[in-house]
Design a protein that fits this description.
mainly alpha, hpI Integrase, Chain A, 3 domains, three-stranded antiparallel sheet, 10% strand, elongated
């Protein structure tokens, strides 16, 4: 039995006969139908040989990384996940990648890695194998439930005295950077790429270019953020707002936290803090997402840990 489906502007032909399955993608429906009929004949004649069994997960991951992953902003991070998966499972032929194999991989990885890390690794496998369907390497993706993240989302917020200690202990430059990150809920990478020409002080607007989601985003500058921006522009040494690489910022922040014994607080937590403060100021979900850049509004929930005291005035 053969079938031809249109997916993403192309035609995917799939043939199932006598317990054998093969698929291939075409730009023309006519070619897809023709190929399907040819494969049915080969199977009937007994001259069809499936090639997918000789293809390993390592081969699939390599092609997926080169043709798909390298075009994504997440490549610098996710290539390490690909290397981990390749090291552990790359020797398996694709027809041997079953749910039980992935369950064993998941359970072993959970002994040494967080639920979030393992969930991301399983996501990489699924994404690569879905692409493998288009390439004719596999016909399906094994089902596997990801580890639960319940109770693992970060809820760390700065107490008022911690915030005052953090700002009071930072040098003037870093203090203004911290204030700007909290007030705007910007990502570290967005601040690192921010050009002074994209800051409109008269309108009190900042345009963030080519953000994590692939879009530009324009955000308002609060009065407190405005003071920080003016300071950073005044001390800028290039057309970019930040004088240093984003990695420097992380290192400086870690050193600062260690020097004041501020435990379990990361640079990215300033974004969590900023998003939550926006909600505490009374902004609704759509307004906050416009500033933070979240496309999935449901994701905002894990960034938001309101201080109950701020809700008293609303009761």
């Amino acid at each position: 039995m053969s079938s031809v489906r249109k997916r993403n502007g192309k035609y995917q032909a799939q043939v199932r006969k006598d317990g054998q399955t093969v698929s291939k993608t075409f730009t023309s429906k006519t070619d897809a139908v023709k190929w399907s009929k040819e494969q049915e004949v080969l199977i009937e004649q007994g001259s069809f040989t499936s090639k997918k069994k000789s293809i390993t997960l390592s081969v699939l991951l390599s092609r997926w990384e080169q043709e798909v992953l390298k075009n994504l902003k997440s490549w610098n991070v996710e290539r390490y996940k690909v290397a981990m998966i390749d090291r552990e499972l790359g020797h398996y032929s694709l027809d041997k990648i079953t749910s039980s194999v992935l369950v064993n991989y998941r359970d072993e990885r959970l002994k040494v890695a967080s639920n979030q890390t393992v969930k991301h690794e399983l996501g990489v496998i699924r994404r690569a194998m879905k692409k493998g369907i288009e390439w004719g390497y596999v016909t399906s993706v094994p089902f596997l439930s990801s580890p639960s993240l319940k109770g693992q989302a970060r809820t760390r917020r700065l107490k008022e005295h911690e915030l005052m200690l953090l700002l009071g202990s930072a040098d003037e430059y870093l203090r203004n950077v911290i204030i700007l990150l909290i007030e705007t809920a910007m990502r570290r990478g967005e601040l690192g790429k921010l050009a002074i020409s994209d800051i409109d002080l008269s309108q009190r607007l900042i345009t963030l270019r080519d953000t994590k989601n692939g879009d530009d985003r324009t955000i308002p500058i609060s009065p407190r953020a405005l003071d920080a921006v003016v300071y950073l522009i005044k001390h800028a040494k290039s057309p970019m707002l930040l004088n240093y690489r984003k990695e420097w910022l992380t290192e400086k922040f870690i050193s600062l936290c260690k020097s004041i014994d501020l435990h379990d607080f990361r640079l990215h937590d300033l974004r969590h803090e900023g998003v939550t403060k926006l909600f505490e100021k009374g902004l609704n979900t759509m307004e906050v997402s416009t500033i933070s850049g979240h496309k999935d509004l449901g994701m905002l929930k894990r960034y938001t840990h309101l201080n109950p005291a701020t809700l008293l005035s609303k009761l």
